[in-house]
Amino acid sequence: MSAKRLCLSIMLATAVATGATSAWAASCSKTSAGFEEWKTEIRGDAINAGVSERTVDKVLANVSYSKATIRADRGQKSFKLTLDEFLRKRGASTIV
């Protein structure tokens, strides 16, 4: 598989992954509990979206739960706000 095709497949898988609803995103825990289940669900979503099993497996083989990344993500002050507060604070009316 060419690098370009792999990149496009990864982008598609990411798009599938980020299509989660806010309710699903809100259920994330502060631990790795459920991470492997999430990977299994994302694998199925990506395959259903047309990404080949081989590509999905190759991409997900190196995906792991990173405590440092989660800690940094949870530490972002902007994301402690509600969506409405965030949009008001960041000037969404001029952006959108």
Structure description:
With 96 residues, the chain is mainly α. It has one domain. The protein has helices at residues 3-17, 22-26, 35-48, 53-60, 67-74, 83-89, 92-95. Helix 1 packs across helix 3 and helix 3 runs antiparallel to helix 4 (53-60). It is extended and about 45 Å long. The N and C termini lie far apart (37 Å). Residues 20-26 have low confidence and may be disordered.
Short description:
With about 100 residues, the protein is mainly alpha-helical.
- What form results from the Cα inertia axes? extended
Number of strands: 0
Number of helical elements: 7
| Count of discrete domains | 1
Order of helices and strands: HHHHHHH
- Radius of gyration over all CA atoms, rounded: 16 Å
Specify the helix fraction band: 55-70%
Attribute tags:
64% helix, mainly alpha, 96 residues, extended
SSE order and pairing:
Layout: H1 3-17, H2 22-26, H3 35-48, H4 53-60, H5 67-74, H6 83-89, H7 92-95
